[in-house]
Amino acid sequence: EAQVAESGGGLVQAGGSLRLSCEASDKSLIYIHVGWFRQAPGRERQGIAAINDEDGRIAITDSVKGRFTISKDNDEKKVYLQMDHLQPEDTGVYYCAADGAWGPLHDRVLGLGSFAYQFDGWGQGTQVTVSA
After folding, report:
1. CA 103, 109, 111, 116 torsion: positive or negative?
2. Which of 131, 122, 129 is nearest to 3 (CA)?
3. Residues 82, 73: contact at Cβ < 8 Å?
4. I need a surface site. Which of 22, 31, 104, 109 has the fewest CB within 10 A?
């Protein structure tokens, strides 16, 4: 099972920015792909973005394109989610998920495929609150 931890959440005014960090590790995996999800109160967990550890391919959901950017730092072994122009509807708990397979993570972030697939690991989540 992958060890996953998020950080960087907080309270920000609409129009502001936050950067979330995710650290994921699993010694049994050659590549560990990472995705970001968010869950607003009373709503299902929604995919945001994912990045392929092997070749850097990115999947990002349309609702955040142009505002959110996912990137990775191989030296620090971290994946970042830079969130700009935040809006109140971006409020929620943001989770990081890690998996050795790219396809299921890609599909889940984009709302495709089976929700029954179990990723190698999830973080505990970090709260992001955007005030109007």
Report:
1. positive
2. 122
3. no
4. 31
Name the CA radius of gyration of the chain, rounded. Answer: 14
Say if residue 15 is exposed, middle or buried (CB neighbours under 10 Å; 0-12, 13-18, 19+). Answer: exposed
Beta bridge partners of 50: 35, 59
Please name the amino acid found at residue 71.
S
For residues 71 and 60, the answer to whether their CB atoms sit within 8 Å is: no
Q: What is the pLDDT of residues 36-47, one digit of tens each?
A: 999 999 999 999
Summarize pLDDT for 100-126 with one digit per residue, the tens.
999 999 999 999 876 778 999 999 999
